[in-house]
């Protein structure tokens, strides 16, 4: 016996609504269409499913038994259909994002929250890591999308490269806060808080001091942007930080100014070349690139 799902669906809808009219409205088909499906089912099963009494359909005991079996199937397929619809509309799935530290604290959580607000079935995996690990994890498939600093150390990554201009951060009320732009010579007597020697901001600041004939002797070295900013708040010196670390900080206690010569951070949003992005991943990537654009240096050309 080959029963068609549409027949079972019509039978299920009649039991659920109590009438052929109600079943037709539920299924979005005509009343004759529902009656025809029911007649086919009764003919194929050779089991009386309804008795007609004063224009109403009353289910037989056999129909009640069949309904209990059919209910699981129909509701299960309805769930599948809804899941397909949600996937088509990027309502469910898994968002997998890993980011270097400065952009991961203040900038990304509100953006992820905005993205997830109308996606009630969304599962989120989010981590903060150093840039080499970000690239490694995206390449290995642990995460779909990564935000990292240059250089790219892994083959097999697709990259949306961008560049941001750093600013000099200083304690609140610092003497240099009266300046609209800070120059390297303004820092001749200032204690400097620097990222590690391998970091691009460290190298650019060192070059700026050397070009100006000034000694480059940072008082504090650290490897976390949030640590740098904490030391600045405590009045232990000034430092060069990117706009994501500065503009999305919630604690305050510091000021920032443009710096000359310009110090830039080269960054990238990376995905794997070997795996297609999920619909969820693509939708978030589009939003991420849109939100990053206002912070990027105009005219930056990647290699």
Automatic annotation (TrEMBL):
HTH lysR-type domain residues: 3-60
GO molecular function terms noted in the UniProt entry: DNA-binding transcription factor activity; sequence-specific DNA binding
Domain of life the protein comes from: Bacteria
Keyword Ion transport: no
GO biological process: positive regulation of gene expression
UniProt KW keywords: DNA-binding, Transcription, Transcription regulation
One Pfam assignment: LysR_substrate
Family affiliation: Belongs to the LysR transcriptional regulatory family.
Name the record gives this protein: HTH-type transcriptional activator CmpR
């Amino acid at each position: 016996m080959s029963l068609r799902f549409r027949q079972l669906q019509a039978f299920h809808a009649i039991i659920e609504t109590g009438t052929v009219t109600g079943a037709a409205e539920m299924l979005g088909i005509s009343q004759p269409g529902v009656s025809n499906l029911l007649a086919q089912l009764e003919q194929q099963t050779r089991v009386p499913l309804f008795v007609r009494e004063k224009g109403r359909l009353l289910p037989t005991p056999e129909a009640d038994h069949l309904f209990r079996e059919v209910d699981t199937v129909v509701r299960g397929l309805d769930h599948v259909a809804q899941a397909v619809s949600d996937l088509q509309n990027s309502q469910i799935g898994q968002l997998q994002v890993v980011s270097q530290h400065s952009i991961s604290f203040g900038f990304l959580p509100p953006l992820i929250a905005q993205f997830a607000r109308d996606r009630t079935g969304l599962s989120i995996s989010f981590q903060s890591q150093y840039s080499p690990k970000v690239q490694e994890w995206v390449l290995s498939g642990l995460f779909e999308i990564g935000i990292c600093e240059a250089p790219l150390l892994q083959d097999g990554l697709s990259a949306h490269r961008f560049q941001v201009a750093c600013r000099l951060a200083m304690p609140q009320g610092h003497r240099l806060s009266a300046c609209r732009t800070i120059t390297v010579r303004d820092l001749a007597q200032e204690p400097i808080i620097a990222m590690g020697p391998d970091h691009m901001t460290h190298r650019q600041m060192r070059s700026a001091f050397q070009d100006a004939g000034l000694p480059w002797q940072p008082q504090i070295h650290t490897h976390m942007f949030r640590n740098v900013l904490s030391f600045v708040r405590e009045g232990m010196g000034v430092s060069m930080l990117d706009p994501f670390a500065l503009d999305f900080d919630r604690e305050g206690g510091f000021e920032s100014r443009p710096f000359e010569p310009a110090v830039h951070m080269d960054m990238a949003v990376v995905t794997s070349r070997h795996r297609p992005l999920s619909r969820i991943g693509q939708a978030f990537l589009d939003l991420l690139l849109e939100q990053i654009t206002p912070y990027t240096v105009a005219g930056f050309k990647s290699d």
